[in-house]
Design brief:
single chain, 258 residues, mainly beta, Thrombin, subunit H, six-stranded antiparallel beta barrel, 3 helices, 9% helix, disordered N terminus
Length: 258
């Protein structure tokens, strides 16, 4: 799963195709899209160039997708693919507009996270067994682990990509536990994975992909990692922390006169 614009920090690991990408290393191929019907693959285009980047996102409702702000920073158009394990075979929807968090600061994830954004589609999704929305909660149940699914890189040395959706379990850390290992951790961020290198973690192309409890309650978005400290410990945007912002902004994005 490397659809995470796993923004890898400065002196650390530089993503070959650009700052917008990230994938899942290790993990397992998802057997049925019905297990993760809320995922949407984003293909994003940089204006006035032939550059394209990929990210993950989660379906909030029939018009709105939730992803990371860094995925959309500098992007003017793109598409979302839903309803299929194969990122090239899903139903395509054009992105009409998007909103980045007002406090998002380009490439300053460590000091001022707010790495969260919403996309509005040009036409509503058709819900069914293969396409559903995630559950958004202000106070989700406490859990020791969560699932991450995406189409990001499967190898951080060779940068092999997977067109098939993959997933992996991530250990959830408290903010206090994260601060003991990381140099800094901004408010509105959590971390997941292992402090020591393991075989299963988010990487290039997984940016924006959702971290889920019980495969349906979204608690995080892949944001970045500091590979100088750990290649497998990923920093996620804390979705419940932004609950009110998501509700307010999704209403304004869906209904401009709200």
């Amino acid at each position: 799963m490397m659809a995470v614009r796993l923004f890898i920090l400065i002196h650390i690991f530089q993503l070959v195709k650009g700052k917008h990408e990230g994938f899942i290393v290790g993990g397992a191929v998802v057997e049925s899209i019905k297990k993760f019907p809320h995922v949407a693959f984003l293909n994003l285009k940089v204006p006035d160039s032939n550059l394209e980047f990929i990210c993950g996102s989660s379906i909030l409702n029939q018009l709105i997708l939730l992803t990371a702000a860094h995925c959309l920073d500098g992007i003017t158009k793109g598409t979302a693919s839903v309803g299929n394990l194969n990122r090239e075979s899903g139903t395509l929807y054009r992105i009409a507009s998007f909103r980045l968090h007002e406090q998002w600061v380009t490439d300053d994830l460590v000091n001022n996270n707010d790495d969260i954004a919403l996309c509005k589609l040009k036409k509503p999704l058709i819900f069914g067994s293969n396409v559903k929305r995630v559950v958004l909660m202000k106070d989700p149940p406490i859990a020791g682990a969560a699932d991450l699914a995406g189409w990001g890189a499967t190898d951080e040395k060779l940068f092999n990509e997977s067109i098939q959706l993959k997933h992996t379990k991530q250990k959830l850390w408290t903010h206090k536990q994260c601060r003991k290992i990381l140099r800094q951790l901004p408010k509105g961020a959590i971390c997941g994975g292992e402090s020591r290198a393991r075989e299963n973690f988010a990487s290039k192309g997984d940016s924006g992909s959702g971290l889920l409890i019980d495969n349906k309650i979204i608690v995080g978005l892949v944001s970045y990692k500091d590979v100088g400290i750990s290649r497998s410990l990923v920093i996620y945007t804390d979705v419940p922390y932004y609950y009110n912002w998501i509700l307010r902004t999704s209403k304004r994005l869906a209904c401009p006169f709200y």
